[in-house]
Design goal:
Helix 2 links the parallel strand 2 (32-36) and strand 3 (60-64). Residues 5-14 have low confidence and may be disordered. Helix 2 packs parallel to helix 3. It is built from three helices and six strands. The protein starts with a helix and ends with a helix. The chain is globular and about 45 Å long. It has one domain (17-137). With 141 residues, it is an alpha/beta fold. A six-stranded mixed beta sheet has the order 1-6-5-4-2-3, covered by helices on one side.
Length: 141
Amino acid sequence: MKHIPIIIVAIVVAGCTSIQVTPLDSGVQNQVACIEENEKVIVPRFLEILVNGFEERNFTTRVYKDSSGKNCQLLVTYTATRNWDFTPYLSDAEVWIRDTSGNRLGYGQYHLKGGGGLAFTKWASAESKMEKVFDQLFTKY
């Protein structure tokens, strides 16, 4: 019985969020960001969330499915996965921003450690989770 509080704290702490970001340089303003659609991502509206994240920061966006994005100034790729606990929720996401030469200009990652554990925040919307990433990714804007 003495160990039950320690176990509960360990489970709750395992549900912490990790956000890792390499901010986009402020010199990359007002460019066209072409987002390559990732058909493997099944998180509802995730592509729309990405588009909104860029457009709210005054980037023009285009979504492409093939090599048509090679004429863009910024190439954006992403992954996103979800877990399930009574209902699906975003558990991991990564966004890469590269120039036309393939050099990485920015990176953002959202990761829910331990699948969220007992933390109620794991059921927050994908928009609110990604907004935290965008705030840091575009911190210079």
